[in-house]
Amino acid sequence: MQKGNIGVTTENIFPIIKKFLYSDHEIFLREALSNAVDATQKLKALARRGEFEGEMGDTTIRISNDAEKKIITISDRGIGMTAEEVDKYINQIAFSSANEFLDKYKDDVQSIIGHFGLGFYSLFMVSEKVEIYTKSYKDDARGVHWSCEGSPEYQLEEYDKKERGTDIVIHLDEESKEFAEETKINELLEKYAKFLPVPVAFGKEQEWKEDKMVDTDKDKIINNPEPAWTKKPADLEEKDYKDFYKELYPMGEDPLFHIHLNVDYPFNLTGILYFPKIRNNIEIQKNKIQLYCNQVFVTDSVEGIVPEFLTLLHGVIDSPDIPLNVSRSYLQSDSNVKKISSHITKKVADRLNDIFKEDRKQFEEKWDDLKIFIQYGMLTDEKFAERAKNFVLLKNTDGKYFTFDEYKELIKEDQTDKDKKLVHLYTTNKTEQYTFIEEAKSKGYDVLEMDGQLDVHFVNKLETDLEDASFKRVDADVLDKLIEKEVSKESKLSDEQQNNLVPVFRGRLPEDGSYIVSVENLDEDALPVMITQSEFMRRMKDMSEMQGGMNMYGNLPDSYNLVLNSNHPLIVNLASNIDEEVGGELKKTDEAIEPVQKEFDEISTKYADKKEEDLSEEEKQKRTEVQQKLDELKAEKENKLKSFGKEEKLVKQLIDLGLLANNMLKGEDLNKFVKRSVELLEE
C-alpha cells in the first residue's frame, strides 16, 4: 500500500473546494459523470485508431446508490487508469494546478474548475470520503484502489478488479445525504445527464406484474445519447424537431419555428433554437435555452453567451469552445463567446427573413406571437434591427400586414401632413378607442394596431429610425390636429361665442382629472365633443408604468383635452342659447370690462420698459387695483357662464358622451347619464 500527501502546499484547498468552488453542490454528479463519459470516449477513440484491439463490450455508465449508507457509485467501462496514472492525474496535476492558480483567482475561484482539471475534486464538496476502483485497458494492467477522506492524505494500493474501467464511490457527508436518495438522483440526472453521449443507466425498467410495478432485468437508460442537435439537418424532418421540443419541454405548446445551428469554423457550435409562443410576461420566457458542452449540461442562464433578446428563445446550444465552468467576466471578454453570440444573431435574422420570403402567409399567421420577440431584438440589438427591417411587419385594425415600405405606399397620399411628415395613426385598444378609429377610417385614414407589451418603446424607435415619420395615437387629438393640412376650416361661431363656450363646459367637468377646454373648427359630421390625451404625456406615462413608475411622469395626474366642435349643430345651437338667455347680462359685464381692460393695457404699456424695482409704491398699487378690478369682472362673467352650464342638461350630456367614448364613464356617473338620456328623449 502506498500512502502519501497530495501535491499541494496548503491544506486550505479542501475547505475551498467544499465551500467556494461551486454555488450549487449538486454539480458534483455532473463532474463525476463527465469524467466517466471522457474515459469511455477516449477508449472508443483508441479503438478507432487501432490502439485498442480488445472487445469494447457494453460501455453503459451505471449509477447505483445506497441511501442508508449515504453512498453513490458511478461505474464506467472506459479507459481506466494504472497506479502511475492515478498518482499523476489524481494526486499531482489537479492540485498542483489548483495551488498555482488559487492566489490568482482568489476572487473568482469558480473559474479554476474546468480550466485546471479540478472537476474530480468537486466530489469533496458533498463527501467525507471518495474512493476510486480502477483498471486500465492496457494489457497486464492491475487494478488500483485509491481513497481520500478530504485531506491532503491519500492511500493507493493494488486491487483485484476483474474488468477495465473505473468505479467512483462517493461517501456523502451528513449535510449532503439527500443526494443518495433515488428521487434526488433522478432529479439531477434529468437536469445534467439527459443528453450525455454515452448511455447512462440508473435502476431497472419496471413492468406491471401481479397488481404492482416490479423491476425487470433490463437497465433503465435515463439519457438520449443522440439528441436531434447532434444530427445533420438533412437527416431530420419537421416531426423530429417537434418531437425534440417535446423532449425538452414536455408541457410546452408547439413552437412557431426552429433554427438548426451547425458550425465548425472558426468555432464549434451546434444546437437547435425554437421560437416559442410568447404570451404576456417576457421574464417568464427566459432561462429556457440550455447550454451544453459536448452534450454535458452547463447552465440555462445564457445571458452572457447570447444577446439579451435571444434569451426569449427556447432550445439547446452546444459548444466545446465554452468551458464547463466560466466566470461572468470571462464570458464578457472571450473572443469565441462574442463570435458565437454574433453568429446566432445573424442565423436568427436570416432564418426569419427566409421564412418571410418563402412563406409570407405562414409568417403573417404567426406574426402576433413573433412580434414581441422581433421588437425586443430591434430595441436591444442594432445589428439585428438593421436586418429585421426586411421582415418586421405592421398590422392595421383590419388585420392586414405590411412591411415598412408597403405601409408607406398605402398612407403617403392621405396621411402626409403640411410639414411633409408621414403620420402613422395607431390604437392601443381597438375596443376602447373604437369611436376614434371609426372616425379616422371614415376620413380615409388607416389605423395601426399597436397593443403589444413593447409597442410604447417600439413607437419611439420607429420615429427615430423612419425618415420623416411620426406616430400618433388615434385618440391623442382631433383628426385635423393629428394630421394637419394646409387648408384650415372656418367656424360657424364668432370668436366671442367660442370664448363663451369654454367656461360653460369647464363648470361641468369631472373633478378627478385635469382638463383643458378648447374649441376647434371641425367638420359638421365630426363629434360635437371629444376628449383626448396628449401623445407625449400619455406615452411618457405608459413608459413609466412599464418601468414601475420610477420617473417624474409616473406621478403626474392624468391630463386631458376636451375639444368642442364649433361647427357641429348641437354646439352651434348651444352657443345661440347662451346668446339668448344670458347674452344681455354678458353684454353689460363686457361693457364694464372694456374701460378697465383699456386702463390696464395702458398701464402695462407705460410700465413695460421699467424694471420692477424702479416702480414707485403708488404705481405698483395702482396697477394692482386695476388688475384686481379686471379679474373680478372677468370672474363675474365666467361665473355667469358656468351657472348657465350647470343648468343646461345638454352640456353635461355632451361631456359624458365624450367620457363614454373613452371608456371613462363608470359607476354612479354612468347611471346618471343613462337616466338623463331617458329624460332628454322624453322632452
UniProtKB/TrEMBL annotation:
Highest taxon listed in the record's lineage: Bacteria
Segments of this protein annotated with the region Disordered: 605-624
GO molecular function: ATP binding; ATP hydrolysis activity; ATP-dependent protein folding chaperone; unfolded protein binding
Keywords per UniProt: ATP-binding, Chaperone, Cytoplasm, Nucleotide-binding, Stress response
Gene3D superfamilies, A to Z: 3.30.230.80, 3.40.50.11260, Heat shock protein 90, C-terminal domain, Histidine kinase-like ATPase, C-terminal domain
PANTHER family: HEAT SHOCK PROTEIN 90 FAMILY MEMBER
Protein name (record): Chaperone protein HtpG
Organism: Salinivirga cyanobacteriivorans
Gene name for this UniProt entry: htpG
